[in-house]
Design brief:
Elements: H1 19-27, H2 30-40, H3 46-53, H4 57-69, E1 73-77, E2 84-88, H5 90-93, H6 96-109
Antiparallel strand pairs: 1-2
């Protein structure tokens, strides 16, 4: 699959050289990731996003506009032909591992032991296994085993 076109450099990037900062500038607010989460779960219509998140109409309008402008979502005519719907682009679908990692972190750290919460399952109904980054040799990776290399022009 072809990669999405990267957004043009913006003068207001938080940290123009950092991929994490740029990603957060694009999708790092609470509402954007909840819209992406719900799109992954089948939401397509404005009213579905609003009902699922409880987001105010004006904020939802802005988030959908921004996510569409940055290539995370795209609009298409619904099968009924009567309205527009929002669907994930390849770039939006690439956020799955981000949402999964946040979900798994939340399961470990945002609930009391034994507290009820939703569970993500695969097509067969089995809980999705813990996502763990690993090196090519299978060694688990973490903050103690990785570092950033700054690129200079």
């Amino acid at each position: 699959m072809p990669r999405a076109t990267a957004p043009a450099a913006q003068p207001d990037w938080t940290d123009p050289d950092c991929p994490v900062a740029r990603a957060l500038d694009l999708v790092g607010d609470r509402w954007s990731l909840l819209v992406v989460r719900d799109a992954m779960d089948g939401a397509r219509a404005f009213t579905e996003f609003q009902r699922r998140t409880g987001i105010a109409r004006n904020i939802l309008t802005e988030r959908l506009r921004r996510l569409t402008a940055h290539g995370v979502l795209t609009q298409r005519t619904a099968p009924s032909g009567r309205r527009q719907e929002y669907v994930l682009t390849d770039a939006g679908r690439d956020l799955f591992s981000v949402v999964l990692t946040l979900r798994q972190w939340g399961e470990r750290h945002a609930f009391a032991p034994g507290e009820e919460h939703s569970v993500l399952v695969d097509a067969h109904g089995a809980p999705v296994p813990e996502l763990t980054p690993s090196a090519p040799d299978g060694t688990p990776l973490g903050p103690d085993t990785t570092h950033v290399v700054k690129r200079t022009p």
